């Protein structure tokens, strides 16, 4: 059989004698060169065909799977399934200099043997097919006999009927790693008769699976990285954060987060150009990766923000890391066109707060700490470890007020300056504290904005305003328009728009739609800042409400230089003139001229004007004389909770 297996090599196959155990007189022989060129015999063609068909079926696994091990396991399982003589097959993947080999997965009738098999390199095993295959990276064969001088082979032959074995290497695309598929036959001459074609093809498929896995891993890695900084991108960072939450909840072992934002980054871009800004971002990412642990994850959270996830960290450890990073960034610089550009960063830090904590809530709190670091002078670390956070304190109060329904709508009247009649009411947010004191919107809305809680406040106030409007209709009171403030956070959420529309539809159905025509007694009030920077997008978001009959007002008109442009793209029906401009118009000729100009323009466009902040009769009379339609201010009443 040795002669029949022998391929056509310039150097003939050598039979290597191996000394037996001390109590044995026999030696055993291994083919030290492979037998890849064996073609097999015609009588074995049907089974050879079955093996090749099994390989063809495995091609679908190559397409569907990105896991090399999964493909290899399926290959050997299919081989064993269609073969009448392969009693065992197993696959090993590991370093080329391995001294011990244990199968990764096994298949076949003798799998119990494979699952307990462990080959350790020794004087007796160094020339066995597996280690020969590992060393030469060539297919290697050996016959197995009950008379073998090596006791494990004698036992295997006796217990499982093994007659011969074949070790087939497959390339993993790296010098340090190697794969081997090993097959045991219970028929003498099986591998000679079948030929090497199916087994070499299997090795090629294993090689393709390995290379495919490597390629897919690289593509997945590229898809996870921010192309500029090399840090994780936003999506990958969010996934990493979710995984860390799952781990922390399962183990009750928390983690820390660092959110940093480069200080005055816009100034760097404006002064030196965007290439310089890119260099700063790249250097920041490099410093962050260099000065955190391998287990920490660094992601680019947005623009010039980076989020760092630190598993198994206490607040003291997180603070220490953040301070070290702050110092490294402060000490760094980049060179651009012969200039040294130095930069700093502000940091917010936090740790996992237990099972009730959610990613959104944790990030929201972290954002507030970062804002405090900016507000307190930049280039510093702020967190909840005694360093304080005014924003977080307000955020806790807002959260409690929302949960206990103590975010209340207060109503302030709007007056027709000619008739003196109340024509509308504006719903303004108020927070009723546990001790009964009331906070005006100006005291907490900034914190709500930073904590991304504005939409929840708008939702509560708008719901109450629609209920208030309906109640007045049921009581037979005069119909008055209700102005509802809507933040960009609210307008940008399709669910909020849908909920407001559904609530309005129910309210209008409840009052019998006493308004004549399509118009409804609700005015959506937005500021220039809340127009999302894109009037057309704002109109698209508002269109369902406008179609239903809501009207649109622009608040604080005159406080922004581009306010006039919004009138071209939005169906504005009301302009609320900013209170400071109204008050200054009494004594300032230029301010008065500006109010006159706004009124003249609004009149030509068919827009109703509303003067805000009127606190005395002199201002009211002036606004009326200038042609302003409505007035609002403490002269007629402060906002009152209904």
From TrEMBL:
PANTHER family: CYCLIC DI-GMP PHOSPHODIESTERASE PDEF (PTHR33121), OXYGEN SENSOR PROTEIN DOSP (PTHR33121:SF71). Pfam families: EAL, GGDEF. NCBIfam families: GGDEF. It comes from Thiomonas arsenitoxydans (strain DSM 22701 / CIP 110005 / 3As). This is Diguanylate cyclase. One of its GO terms (molecular function) is cyclic-guanylate-specific phosphodiesterase activity. Residues 391-642 form the EAL domain. Residues 253-386 form the GGDEF domain.
